[in-house]
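Q: How do we represent a protein-ligand complex in a form that can be generated token by token?
A: Start from the inputs.
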Amino acid sequence: MTIDLFEQSPPEPWAEPICEGAVVLRRFASVRDAELLKEIEQVADQAPFRQMKTPGGHTMSVAMTCCGDWGWVTDAQGYRYQQQDPVYGSSWPGMPELFHTLAAEAAAKAGYAGFEPDSCLVNRYSTGAKMGLHQDKDEDDFGQPIVSVSLGTPVTFQFGGTRRSDRPQRVLLEHGDVVVWGGPARLRYHGVLTLKANHHPLTGVYRYNLTFRRAR
Ligand code: MD3
Ligand code: FE
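Then emit the structure tokens for the protein with fe (iii) ion bound:
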């Protein structure tokens, strides 16, 4: 018997619980990675990545764009979802079928059948970018889960409690990892440590994160 090194299939995704209500589906998005990247580029052709300002006047280190019916924005007026891209005043690009399907399948796998995201925030981290501890609370219904898809270079994710002062646990998120957050995990503080200089064959220096939400 011979072992054929050229006919190996990619590793199967596997589920890793983080806490009650949160599960990492390791490599869940890997098989569709090139298509996902193409879709991100097409979204960014219509709605370019931009570094928005927080209500406090700081420019975010993460560059963002959105697709779907509702886009998440921040400016001097505050954080909110809106249907127009503030750069051009036009609607956000439609959510690609692949995005919607992937998010719904991941949610179902985590026990949230029927998840219908109406918003996808696309975060682009370059070396040195980070996201401080925060809660996602601009959505109407916290009963809806959030699905996040990581692509490109790895990063250490921080997952805290329901108070900012709760000491966060650390989870390494790598290319293709999908996380579903719902139920008791939905309002927990979370953030992303500073992205280290790195290279990924598909994304170069970047880490992308797609965050799927039901905004309304
Ligand atoms: C845990 N983005 O855009 S996604 C964000 O990697 C955001 O770009 C991060 O946090 C990123 O708001 C992390 C993972 C995530 C998203 C929502 C959550 C974790 C969460 C909601 C509740 C608890
Ligand atoms: Fe968040």
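The first strand starts at residue 14 and ends at 19. The domain at 14-213 is CATH 2.60.120.590 (Jelly Rolls).
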